[in-house]
Amino acid sequence: MKKDLKEFKTFPSSTIKEIQRAAKEGIYQIRGLGAKRKVPDFDDLVFLGASMSRYPLEGYREKCNTSVILGDRFAKNPIKLDIPITIAGMSFGALGANAKEALGRGASAMGTSTTTGDGGMTKEERGSSKYLVYQLLPSRYGMNPDDLRKADAIEIVVGQGAKPGGGGMLLGQKINKRVAGMRTLPEGIDQRSACRHPDWTGPDDLEIKIQELREITNWEKPIYIKVGAARPYYDTTLAVKAGADVVVLDGMQGGTAATQDVFIEHVGIPTLGALRESVDALKELNMHRKVQLIVSGGIRTGADVAKAIAMGADAVSIGSAAMMALNCNADLYRKDYEKLGTEPGYCHHCHTGKCPVGVATQDPILEKRLNPIEGGKRLKNYLSTLTLELQTLARANGKSDVRNLEPEDLAALTVEAAAMARVPLAGTDWIPGLKNKK
Amino acid sequence: MNLDLNKKKLSEINQLLQNVGREKNNRRFQILNPQGQHAICAGLKDDIEVSIKGHTGYYCAGMNKNASITVHGNVGTGVAENMMSGKVIIKGNASQSAGATGHGGSLIIEGDASSRCGISMKGINIIVKGSVGHMSAFMAQKGNLIILGDADADLGDSIYEAKIFVKGKVKSLGSDCIEKQMDDKNIKELNKIFKDLNISEDAKKFKRYGSARNLYNFKIDNVSSY
Hints:
The structure holds two protein chains of two kinds. Chain A has helices at 13-25, 97-109, 123-128, 145-150, 177-183, 203-216, 232-242, 261-266, 271-284, 302-310, 320-325, 334-339, 364-367, 372-396, 415-421; strands spanning 30-31, 45-47, 68-70, 79-81, 85-87, 113-115, 131-136, 153-157, 169-170, 191-192, 223-228, 246-250, 259-260, 292-296, 315-318, 410-412. By secondary structure, chain A is α/β, with parallel strands linked by helices.
């Protein structure tokens, strides 16, 4: 672009391009993964570290516990994970069977859980997952009491960060014979999952639904409730009231296999602000650390994990980042990215079923590009790195258990992040919105 | 064997019924004093017979497999939801979402069923001897919803491959649901269901409804239907 040309701020070239695409095609854009817009996030926070009044722990020599127990409020058999980083729900259908197996392998090697998705439980993921969370979604595709009993926990999905208020979407090119069979649908249709549950409509009903699930599973399984970051204070309160053992909060940066771009970019609030609200609700109910909180949506590094825990989460969940550990957006098979009109680092074409690296596809040729054993090793290495980073930051703040990290350990770099996370702006004692905070 | 909910806890009764061993000869049970409790007979696994003497709350017989359950009363929301197999008979009326997402087996409601009967059903046969409320068979994927009475508004909205048979009047059909020809094959299939379930009805008196399949793939030409 020539330097003397001035772009319209209201109509930058990307907006003009989208207007002209819409004018030509008359239909919204559908795509995968999460929000591409910049929102306040964990990068806008820093840890203070140790000082005269805070004693650090010695590097990797002094122990720093990372284990976490999930679901000990009501469940007879809560889950004890070695690390507070879980794998988020992603459906078989959105992902191929090799990807699901790789996720199970990587998570199991690190002593953590993985999660089914909108398509039921596959034998590959059950077989490869030490701890498997079984999602109960509005569609109930593949839902059955045998798999419910095989699960280590049950996650009732109310919403998803990428699209709170929207149901699932899996386009026809990914509905092959096996996927269609598991979902009791014709092959090749553009499948729209329901956006609300078929047999309950509010928190009072949900309480009864949870009772039913507990009766079917002999009160053994922890029950999670997953909500998209819409009204996290109220949703968390209602989830606790409904009897959840664990609340899963998914911020707007969370990914999806396919939905409307306008949904991904314009519905829901960032993880940073949502987490604060959810923790507030738990504390007001005196349920913080009693009902565990798992947060997801844009978790990429051990620093993100540590900051989420410092703000009050018990664990985090990763989806997009786990896919990336399996090679999503890796600089491989460039020509196939080009065929999709994209390139490594920019691809969000999960919805097409033509994933160049064999992660989000049902194409048998493409799927072979992901070896589940090697993929599992890469995920294990990634989870190991996140855990080491988390411990490093916890020790630097003098914590022998990562869950001892606290908001007091944090400072914000922007006014927005200070207001959302409710920690002081760095170098000040100012928390926007809190009058009496000193 | 009598199981009295005034004397035993629901969990105790459900556990007992879920774990009746094959070696047990006593396979008939009667539940007394249900008093509208929720999740009665949830998750039963084997071919036992249970008779519930009174009204039940939500999710009675939820996710049933193989068992035959008869409720001598009315039932709350989600009776036989996600049923896999077996038979559930309701002597009275059913609240909303009866047979929701059911994969198999038969649900017979002798009275009326409220809204969203058979929502997202996946292979179950639901027979309602009375009438059904609005949005019944919403997003129904597979199986048969057979209505001997009338159907309220938006029947079969966004239906997939399930079949709806109605003897009475239909107030209105939902998106992408149309009346279909009731041919010999359908008449034969429906009569077989009636025969298997000991219901004396003539399939020829029923109209059939199903998917126009216009919404199966997202096309801009259909935007007015969305």
